[in-house]
Amino acid sequence: MDSRIYRLVCPGRIINIQRSNGLIHKATVKTVNADRSSVSVEWCEGGAVKGKEIEIDDVITINPELSEELLAADVKENLPLQENVTVQKQKRRTTLSKIPAPREAVRGRSRMSVITESQCSLQENEMGVDPCTSTQTRNNLSVPVRRRSNIVKEMEKMKNKREEKRAQISEIRTKRAQEFDSSCPNWEFAQMIKEFRATLDCQPISITDPIEEHRICVCVRKRPLNKQELLKKECDVITVPSKSVLLVHEPKQKVDLTKYLETQAFRFDFSFDESSSNEMVYRFTARPLVETIFEGGKATCFAYGQTGSGKTHTMGGDFSGRAQNASKGIYAFASQDVFLLLNQPRYRSQDLEVYVTFFEIYNGKVFDLLNKKAKLRVLEDGKQQVQVVGLQERQVGCAEDVIRMIEMGSACRTSGQTFANASSSRSHACFQIILRRRGKLLGKFSLVDLAGNERGADTSSADRQTRMEGAEINKSLLALKECIRALGQNKSHTPFRESKLTQVLRDSFIGTNSRTCMIAMISPGMSSCEYTLNTLRYADRVKELSPHNGGGETQNQMETENEETETSGEGSGHNLSKDEEEDISPHMFNFREAITQISEREEKVVEQLKELRQRMMTELDYLLGITEQPDYDLETFVSRAKHFVEASSRNFLSVRETLDALGVAMQLEEQASKQMRRQRP
Question: How does DSSP assign 1-19, residue by residue?
Fold first, then answer.
C-alpha cells in the first residue's frame, strides 16, 4: 500500500463509508492503523455516537477522489523538473541571439551547437547512457513525463481480489447446488435451514413426559407436508427443538437480493412436531380436562388455525378421501375416557347419564347437525343463562354410540372451497359431552373445531357470501380470544356477546371451575409462512410465555397483570386489543362495520317477515271464518278487513325500510371490498 494514502486519509478528515445494510453516509476519521491497513471512523446517529473499523481498500473504493488527489500529487512532483529544462533552453537561445556579427551568426550557432552536443555526448558517455535513448529523451523534453502511480496498481489488485472472491462464491454456490436438489425452487433457503438445524440439540416431546395441568393450556401442533406441498417441493420452515419451543424460519431478501432467514421463537405449554399422533396430542391437551366435568365444572377444547392446517383431522379423526375414521379423533378419545371414568367405583353409584349434542355456527347462525341441520335460536332466559332453543341432546351408552353421532354430524357440516383447501370447513363445529345427574346438569365438555382463519385481504376478491363468511369467522375468533384472556385474568366482565360462538359457550368462560385448552394448528410450508405466523401470534396473545425461559412455566403475564377496569355496558363494536386496533386499516374497519350492519338488518327483516306472516295468517283466518257464518255482520267484516289492510300496509312499509337499509349496507360492503382489493399488494 502506498504510504502517501495514509497522509491523505488523516485523522479529522471526513470521508464516505458504507454500512452493512448498503447505506452510504459521511463519517470522520479518528485513527489510522498502517499495520492493519485500516482506519477507524465515527459518526452521529439518533443522538448517539457510533463507530467502526474499515479497511483502507474499501475507503479508496467508496472515495474515488482520494485516487485523483494522489495522481495530482504525482504530476505536481514532476512539473518543476520540466519547467527548469524549458527555462535553460530559453536562456541558451537568448545567449545565442546576442552574437553581434550577422555573418558569423550561422557559424556561431553551428559552433555552439557542436560544443553543446559534444558536451552532452561527453556527459552521456561518462554516465553510461545509451546515445539513442539520450537523443530520444532530448527530443521529448517538452512532453510532460508521467510515471505510473502506485494507487493504480493498488486499484488493479483490489479488482483482481474482487474477481477472485466472486469466482470463489460462484464455485461454492455451484457445489452446494450439486449437493442439494437444484430442482427445488427455494433450495438456498432449504440449505440454510438444514445448516441451522444441524446446530440444534432437538429434544421433542415424548409420550413418557409428565402431564402438567393448566387452567388455560395453549399448545401448537405442526402437521407434515401434504402431497400438494411435496409436489411443489416446498421447504419446511418450522422447527420444534423442544417440547415447549417452536421456531419459524421466515425467508427474507435484502435490497441487494441477498437471501437470509429471520428466525422467530415462540413458547407455549406444549409443542408437537409432525411425528406426533392424535393420541399424543390428546394425552397432553384434552385428557386432563375430562375429569373436570365429573367435578361439576366446564371444560372447553378448541382447535384453531389456518385453512388446511389439520384442525378437523385432529378433532374429528383420520380422513381417507371423504371417508372419516372418527375413532382416531379427540372427540372419540374424550368420549372413551368419559365412559372409563363413569365405570369407576367412585362414579358408578352416582346415577350419571351421558348426553351429546353436535351443532355448527355458520355466518352467525346455529344449526343442529344431529337433527337434519335444523336452524336454532340462541336466547337468554330470565336467569341470564344462554339457551340454544331446539337443540337436541342424544343420550349415549357407550363410545361406539358417540362415534356414530360424530360421523352423522360431520357429514352435514358446511364446507366450501378456499384458496388453501378445496373442501374447507366454513363453520365452527361444536361437539358437547354433557353429564347429568337425575336430569340435572353436572358438567359439560365442549370440543370445538373452529373454522379456518383468513386475512381480510384474501377474501376481499371473492363473492359477497365468501367475504361475509370470512368476516364472521374472524369476528368470532377475536371475540373468543378476548373471552379466554378474560377467563385467565379473572376479569369481572367477559365480552361473550360479541359473537354467536362466545355467546353459546358463555358458561365455559365463567366460574372458578372452568378450564380451557387451545390447540393451534400450523402448516409447515414456506408458502404458508405468513399465515403460520398470524396463527402463532394469535395463540401467543391468548397466553404470553417468554420463548427465552429455559424450563418450567414462566409467570404468565396474562395472569399477573393488574386487573383492568371494565365497563358493564355492551357496545356494538368489537373489543380489540391495542395491537389489533393499530393493524386494522380504515377500509378494513369500514368493511367490518358494513358486514355487521348486513347481519343485523338481515336478522331484523327475517324477524319482521315472520311476525308479519303470523299476524296475517291469524287475521286472515278470522276474516274468512266470519264469512263462513250464514248471518255474519257485513259492516263489521268490512271495517275489520280495512283495518287489516291498513295495518298490513304499515307493516310492509316498515319491512321495505329495513330492506332499503340492508341494500345500503350491501353497497357499503361492496365499496369497502373494492378499496381493500386496490390496497392489496
Answer: --THHHHHS-TT-EEEEE-
Q: Is 629 exposed, middle or buried, given 0-12, 13-18 or 19+ CB atoms closer than 10 A?
A: exposed
What are 445-457's pLDDT values in tens digits? 999 988 877 654 4
Q: How many residues are recorded in the chain?
A: 681
Which cell numbers in the block locate residue 15? 470521508
pLDDT at 629: 81
Lowest mean pLDDT among 16-25, 319-328, 430-439: 319-328
Q: Are 523 and 516 in contact (CB under 8 A)?
A: no
Mean pLDDT of the chain: 76
pLDDT at 149: 64
Q: Rounded distance, CA 598 to CA 661, Å?
A: 9
Measuring CA to CA, how many Å separate 219 from each of 242, 270, 543? 13, 5, 10
pLDDT at 301: 92
- C-alpha distances (whole Å) from 421 to each of 209, 399, 424, 452, 454 are 34, 31, 5, 10, 12
Q: Where are the alpha helices (DSSP H) in 516-585?
A: 529-542, 557-560, 578-583
* Closest by CA position to 589, among listed 602, 573, 601: 573
First to last CA, the chain: 51
Tell me the chain's radius of gyration from C-alpha atoms. Answer: 43
- 17 alpha carbon, distance to own chain's centre: 34
What's the rounded Cα separation, in Å, for the pair 313 and 332?
12
Amino acid symbol at 532: T
List b or e across 211-229, with b for residues whose CB sees 16 or more CB atoms inside 10 angstroms: eeebbbbbbbbbbebeeeb
Neighbours of 627 (CB within 10 A): 10
- DSSP codes, 117-182: HHHHHHHHHHHT--HHHHHHHHHTTTSPP-PPPHHHHHHHHHHHHHHHHHHHHHHHHHHHHHHS-T
- Of residues 563, 547, 454, 650, the one with CA closest to residue 266: 547
Euclidean distance between CA atoms 516 and 521, whole angstroms: 16
> What are the strands of the beta sheet with 24-33, ordered from one edge?
14-18, 24-33, 38-45, 48-55
Q: Check if the beta carbon of residue 377 is closer than 8 Å to that of residue 389.
A: yes
Cell 518543476 belongs to residue? 80
**Residue 424 has what pLDDT?**
56
pLDDT (tens digit per residue) in 585-596: 676 677 777 777
**In the block, which residue shows the cell 514532476?**
78
Q: How many CA atoms lie within 13 A of 157 on its CB side?
A: 11
Q: What are the tens digits of pLDDT across the range 505-526?
A: 887 777 678 888 999 999 998 8
Q: Are 501 and 476 a contacting pair, CB within 8 Å?
A: yes
Q: Dump strand ranges (E) for 570-613.
A: none
Sheet holding 245-253, edge to edge: 238-239, 245-253, 259-267
| pLDDT band, very low/low/confident/very high, at 222 (cuts 50, 70, 90) | very high
247 neighbors 253 (Cβ within 8 angstroms): no
The residue type found at 137 is: T
Region 185-214 average pLDDT: 83
| HEC assignment per residue over 488-544 | HCCCCCCCHHHCHHHHHCHHHCCCCCEEEEEEEEECCEHHHHHHHHHHHHHHHHHCC
Minimal CA–CA distance to 455: which of 477, 434, 422, 431?
A: 477
Please give the torsion angle defined by the CA atoms of residues 551, 555, 556 and 558, in that order, rounded to the nearest 10 degrees: -170
Query: Would you say residue 99 has pLDDT above 50?
Result: no
| Matching residue, cell 517538452 | 142
**Cβ atoms of 403 and 371 closer than 8 Å:** no
pLDDT digits (tens, 9 = 90+) for 357-394: 999 988 888 999 998 888 888 887 777 778 888 899 99
In the structure grid, which three cell numbers stand for residue 105, read together? Answer: 551568426
* 3-class state of residue 472 by DSSP: helix
Distance CA 281, CA 461 (A): 36
Cα separation, 501 vs 429, whole angstroms: 10
